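Morning. Coffee machine broken again, so started the prediction first thing and wrote up yesterday's gels while waiting. Chain of 1015 residues, entered below exactly as on the submission form.
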Amino acid sequence: MIEQLSLRASAPAAPYAEFLAALRAAGFKGEISSDYASRTVLATDNSIYQRQPQAAVFPAHAEDVQTVTRLLAEPAHRDIALTARGGGTGTNGQSLTDGIVMDLSRNMNRILEINAQERWVRVQAGVVKDQLNAALKPHGLFFAPELSTSNRATIGGMINTDASGQGSCTYGKTRDHVLAIDFVLLGGDRLQGRPLDAQQLDAACAQGGRAGQVYRTARRIADTQAELIAAKFPPLNRCLTGYDLAHLREADSRFNLNSVLCGAEGSLGCIVEAKLNVLPIPKYSVLVNVRYTAFMDALRDARALLALKPLSIETVDSKVLMLAMQDFSWNSVAEYFPADAQQPTLGINIIEFSGDDAAAVDRKVQEFIAHLQSDTGVQRLGHTLAVGESAVKRVYAMRKRAVGLLGNVQGEARPQPFVEDTAVPPENLADFIAEFRALLDSHGLQYGMFGHVDAGVLHVRPLLDMKDPRQAALVRPVSDGVAELTQRYGGLLWGEHGKGVRSEYAPAFFGELYPALQQLKSAFDPHNQFNPGKIATPAEAKTLLLKVDGVPLRGEQDRQIDERVWQSFGAAMHCNGNGACYNFDPDDAMCPSWKATRERVHSPKGRASLLREWLRLQGAAGVDVLQAAAAKPAFVSSLATRWRNSRAADRGETDFSHEVYSAMSGCLACKSCAGQCPVKVNVPDFRARFLELYHQRYLRPLRDYLIGSLEMTMPWMARMPAVYNGLMGAGWVRRLLQKHIGMVDSPLLSQFDLQAVLKRWNVQPAQAQALQALSQEQRARSVVIVQDTFTRYFDPEPLAALIELAARLGYQVWLAPLNPNGKPLHVQGFLGAFAQAAIRNARELSALAAFDIPLVGLDPAMTLTYRQEYQKVAGIGSVPQVALPQEWLLQALPEALPAQADSPLFTLMPHCTESTNAPDSSNQWVQVFARRGLKLRAQAVGCCGMSGTYGHEERNLATSKKIYAQSWERKLPAEAAAEVSLAAGYSCRSQVKRLSERQLRHPVQALLEQLRAAA
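Came back before lunch.
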């Protein structure tokens, strides 16, 4: 048992505490967080570094940003460092600081204006790229710079790193689409960055204050250093991002300070708004997917592939490809990358052609294919075509996941981003990579590669176990070697993802021009307060540029965790900060609690970060959490300890455990993270383990016991449904439950007569003796339905429909004994009781499965528990496969019927756990309906917000409703619409009934209705 009372974490240093107090007094309207949980989550990004900030501020609007920077300029606060942060997806520690983080993504995320006619938009800095493109799509427009992190990267972050990716040779970088920047300077003044003619530039330079000083400095550098600038900035697609002096004067002679602001990584001030150029969406696209026997062949082929000027060329090596094949996204793209056992694919190039004239694009594609067939420079295995928007999106979705997928390799050595965005002239790429690989091979390192061969950019991630000091030490020699190599090949160490901690190499690349960068920095930020140590520092600054081995590494913290504990908690420890869980799309199931709260502690990455730190602190306090979890303390002494600790907590005794508990409690346990996270971080799994340990120290609320025991108590309650419903429907009982138990909207028992259905269709109890007596032919026409408590007692109509549907298809239906599945116990962290239930249930189901009769479960969440949570129970033995209804129906239904002309259009509202952990499930329902001549489409929808009992807990009520409103309420077809809405999840149907007062049917009910009509 965990005996010690508290895990105290460090508080902000005194100067920062004083600054925060002054900020509140100055009228700051946003949120200010100095709690240890928020600081821990913001201590990491998608890099190898970890820097604990003193606090975080979340401005409500641009005026708040001005308040912060005005206060920052006061002499009393000149030692305060401030770093702006957007999506936190940087791979080089750009937004990491040991000062204050200013997160612009939580509140400043509105699209302010769309001018479709003139093709521009105005947005706040926290708007996400995919969010913007979703708003632009109805106008036929899009914001062109493409990123693999586009579903969580903010516009402010893209500008600050001058981001680019796929298609940059055609569309350019972010700065090529920035028309104006609303920029807050030190002291609070607003600078409107835009191109200026000579007269406007004179006026800008003549003004007083910091803006005038900035313009005067920039003009002087542009005028006096022109030849040196031309010599030092390489003519690359990626060029030298950050303080881009080469583009201060544009081709039309206008002066554009935005070339300096784009890529400045927040080291000059704060972007609050931007006006952006947008482009028409190409009406037609085709991808040519070329396969190779060697990755170097894919690289060497770049020159031949560029001959016909495609929009882009993306490359992926064998390591990334193999990982993609294990990912949930592979089902949707496998047809484009056929396997060949004789000649395996070890590299691919994805070449895009697009335009508005489909015939013209197709002609260009055919010319390209002819070119491939005539060019014998390298050996190609073959090619496929992905034609049209849907196919192209699927292939690119797989390619976008490449960054995260690399983090899912097995073992402790994982791909690390610190030399992963080199850029060289495309014609030098193959030779450059050959030397790059030789450098890594000399250190005995494995690696994964992917990138943009048309731009000469390749993402290379060496595999290192950063917990091992010897391997972590390789960051220095590898970085030095790659920096020298890129310079020798006329390229850059940082071609795409910014400088960040790698800024120490800036003086070497800029050479004699570096003092000019220092002068610019000094004009903007004389006391080095904005993101110090990045890109340039004032010549007189005390803080110098950061060094790749001079900033704390994540591995330094991680190695403090006992290796046994590290291994035990698995994927949670390997969260690499990729941030796929920050997906903005409300119609994507990934992490509904993050979408609803916009608080990063309520995301899978946030919760994994908190768990990792909690385990580190436990170890530092001398607690063996594995031993504690296995302990069986005496009930009386355990209760006394928990009571004392809980009383101390009520009196205000601090314990970081409470902050972790708060974050874990907000999780819906929907398991979308387990299915969609590239590293497979499974929050519900480690959440349950944390809750078990936490409640060894602190008392549980009665609510936990009520929820955990539901499967055991409901069969007894169902014996007197009228009494139960009468009590649960009474106002005073509901008020009592809400106030003292914390439960709301508790469902009532169904009055449906399931027994009559069982009798009518001769449903028999599934018992070993009865099944053994069946002939082989009888077993082949039998099915065992595995019940669950919730559909059995609260919503039995779908269960009855499945029984009748199976019987009408000629199957003898057997009903498995109704045993507790255990999922509610697992969700609440009663892991001992869950293990007992799982072992008992698995044993009985295994006995039934021995007769080769399919086992079918109705509810997705309960059924998938057999495949996932049961598999991790020690001593459980084999767990039989329990099929989802659609999986069984694809085997049970006869061949397809002709499409029914008068069939209504059915719309499936997918269950989030099912769609992310059984990714082919929706498509299987479409196939099942097609077998009956019916039309079904799967709606793109997020989580409904119920997720078992989550929505019935009073503490979650507001969040549950917000989650529902974000997607389901918006996407649910109107009741009077021609579409018929269906939902496979009990929780989903319950939430719709509660919040929209509509009763959705299960897909099997619609199928049964059609079967009855056809009979």
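The longest helix spans residues 831-849. Going to sketch it on the whiteboard this afternoon.
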